Amino acid sequence: MEKVLVLLTLIFFLASCEENRKSEWLENDLSEIQSIDPSDTNYTDLESLKKAIGNSKVVLLGEQEHGDGSTYLAKSRLVNFLHKEMGFNILAFESDFFGVNKAWEDYQLGKKDYQDVLDQLYIFWSQSQMCESLFHTIEESQNTQNPIILAGFDNQQLTRVSREELIPSLDSIIREHRILISTPDLEFFKKILEEAINQFHDQEITLENQASFLVTLDTLTKEFQKKDMDAFWIQELKNTRGFMMHTWHWWIDRENDMADNNHRDLQMANNCLWLLNEKYQGEKMIIWAANGHIIKTDTLFDVEAEGWKPAIRQYPMGEVLFDSLGEEMYSLGFTSYKGESTSLEYDSVTQNFIFQSYPFEPADSTSFEFELKQQGFEYAFVDLSEQSELWTTNDRRIRVWRPEYVKGKLSTIYDGIFYIHDMKPNKKL
Question: Structure pTM?
Answer without folding.
Answer: 0.91
